[in-house]
Amino acid sequence: MTTKTPIAFLISGALALGVVACGDDEDEAGGGGGGEPVAQVDKLTGVSTSVALDAAFVEALTTLKVTPGPVGDAKITKAGEAVFPITGGNVTYYEPGTESPSVQGIINHEGSGLSLEAGGTLVELENFDVDPGASVLTGDVSVDGKVAAKDAELFFLDGRTLNPLEVDKKSNTATLQGTTVKLKQSAAELLNKTFKIDALAGDFVIGTATITINAS
Question: Looking at residue 144, what is its pLDDT?
């Protein structure tokens, strides 16, 4: 593992996470393979991925009488933001066209998640993994404490709405805000079946994600 100074680590994180979950066809097409990575973060140590829940999603949950809540180490703020601590992972970034996908790795959020409860039924979505190359978030699903699915594709991460990177040198962190989180069709079908509804569908906007990483 290459040793990085804090500022080098910060730049690496900026380059790598700057295209996380971008859903860009250019990244997926025609890489020749064998390219050298431009930036590499071998061990992510936090801080968190948070999602500001979309007003339309919150309204839909209210209409359906579905109550969201935190699972494990997650929290939901008074402002309606779900926060999931980053527990590990890695990211490697290649120059687009030299390797496909150009962003590879995993961002782990073990021991936290989001619950949805309605009509005496409790669904828990937890242990999230963000796969930047596939622009997808996977996780484990349980219904009333029983496992319904492991490593299921839950959300699509659309980075076309991503804002420029923000660097806080004082706290030594790098933050990206603006990725749109959308419900995957398979997850919508599972929730509709579990709650005996038909109101959810793929591409339903859940909210806007913010990823903050330690730079040391």
Answer: 97
